[in-house]
Automatic annotation (TrEMBL):
HAMAP family: RadA_bact. ATP binds at G97, D98, P99, G100, I101, G102, K103, S104. Keywords: ATP-binding, DNA damage, DNA repair, DNA-binding, Hydrolase, Metal-binding, Nucleotide-binding, Stress response, Zinc, Zinc-finger. Belongs to the RecA family. RadA subfamily. A motif (RadA KNRFG motif) lies at residues 254-258. The middle region has homology to RecA with ATPase motifs including the RadA KNRFG motif, while the C-terminus is homologous to Lon protease. Pfam families: AAA_25, ChlI, Zn_ribbon_LapB. This is DNA repair protein RadA. Plays a role in repairing double-strand DNA breaks, probably involving stabilizing or processing branched DNA or blocked replication forks. DNA-dependent ATPase involved in processing of recombination intermediates, plays a role in repairing DNA breaks. Stimulates the branch migration of RecA-mediated strand transfer reactions, allowing the 3' invading strand to extend heteroduplex DNA faster. Binds ssDNA in the presence of ADP but not other nucleotides, has ATPase activity that is stimulated by ssDNA and various branched DNA structures, but inhibited by SSB. Does not have RecA's homology-searching function. Gene3D superfamilies: 3.30.230.10, P-loop containing nucleotide triphosphate hydrolases. It comes from Shouchella xiaoxiensis. Residues 353-457 are annotated as: Lon-protease-like. Residues 68-217 form the RecA family profile domain.
Amino acid sequence: MVKQKTKFVCQECGYESAKWMGKCPGCQSWNTMVEEMNAKPNASNRSYVTSGDTIHKAQPITAVKGEREPRVSTTMTELDRVLGGGIVPGSLVLVGGDPGIGKSTLLLQLSAKLAKTNERVLYISGEESVKQTKLRADRLELSSDQLYVLAETDVTLIERAIDEVQPSLVIIDSIQTVYKEEITSAPGSVAQVRESTAAFMRVAKTRGIAVFIVGHVTKQGSIAGPKLLEHMVDSVLYFEGERHHTYRILRAVKNRFGSTNEMGIFEMKELGLEEVLNPSEIFLEERSQGASGSVVVASMEGTRPVLVELQALISPMGFGNPRRMATGLDHNRVSLLMAVLEKRVGMLLQNQDAYLKVAGGVKLDEPAIDLAIALSVASSFRDQPTNPMDVAIGEVGLTGEIRRVSRIEQRVNEAAKLGFKRVIIPEKNLGGWTVPKGIQVVGVPTLDKALEVALRR
Ligand SMILES: Nc1ncnc2c1ncn2[C@@H]1O[C@H](COP(=O)(O)OP(=O)(O)OP(=O)(O)O)[C@@H](O)[C@H]1O
Ligand SMILES: [Mg+2]
């Protein structure tokens, strides 16, 4: 009898070794090595990108028949935007997110919407029974004859079901629960996740069916299973949001068919996820006007400007080291801007605790928000309120200069649309574009000057 060869595979990074080790040499994490059977290379594993019956020969690119990918609209504007204009048939999309954030809800809603437009959809749940899925669908008031549901975890049986139903969209909820029988390791292990994804990849590419896969995330926030998974699929979307906020943000981290800096905003309601088409209005809804430390910034989220309120609270520190806390912002950037304020403006901040927050639970990571951060810190430190009708845009350099930012016109237009009266922008951005009616634009060259303009005594 042939001896079955086994190996030990790290569940975090996919490192392989012949013997068990407590600590993975690849990613230094503990207790992640799991015994797995060596999978036999299988003929059907090869060449999944091409369809089965053609002979594969290299050919000039001009000879390849290129149709523009037809896109199927999901009828959800926010989702279409993140996908790059709709679902591409034959694409494989991975949707990751924290437990309970609403992945199943989002995909069930997507399925039902698509089914309503007479596309057949197969929703496969490995986590919930068909009854549970039905209950959820009832609660969300979704139903359609074209929406098929199946509770199954065996990949071979799932493939059979796809053959029977002939859908144009398949949802796999989730990849960590499905398994291939040939592989002996448990569902959710590196080998299972990799092989099952490869199987769905084949389904997608050979039959032109779009497949959405749900993936769980690890404690660190990345999609559980090997990094390889993200390389295999066409698009990776993250569904995120703070547990205590009702807003949920869908971001593309990888997209072979579109831009990755788009974001879709949803609100979790009793009747499921509702699209937020005017995010600025919602993020500014609860603003306390005229308080010190509050500044509104226009940040670009993909191709769309979003106005958000930034808040800072600066208070004398107790003892030990001063605290720098930032929610929704990079705290290193906050420290850097506080150092610039200290050195270039002469504000004594080293013995002050600083707490900064972006309202609404959004994360901002664009250089153009620098000026707003600096202004909110200065406003709270000096206890001088800013004008609630002002918006601040600009990158701050280490010498205290205000640097040019991109897409200034779009940002100012959004501010004007929401009724703001004045925008403070980098002086270098002045000219070359039309200022919308009803808004005043002030260009500032340095941080010093910006403080003079923005803070009210
Ligand atoms: N009866 C209800 N009324 C209102 N909202 C509900 C109700 N039941 C669930 N929800 C909302 O739906 C969310 C769960 O959504 P969903 O099951 O889609 O999450 P998930 O990301 O698929 O979770 P998991 O990782 O466990 O599969 C809950 O956090 C809650 O906000
Ligand atoms: Mg779920």
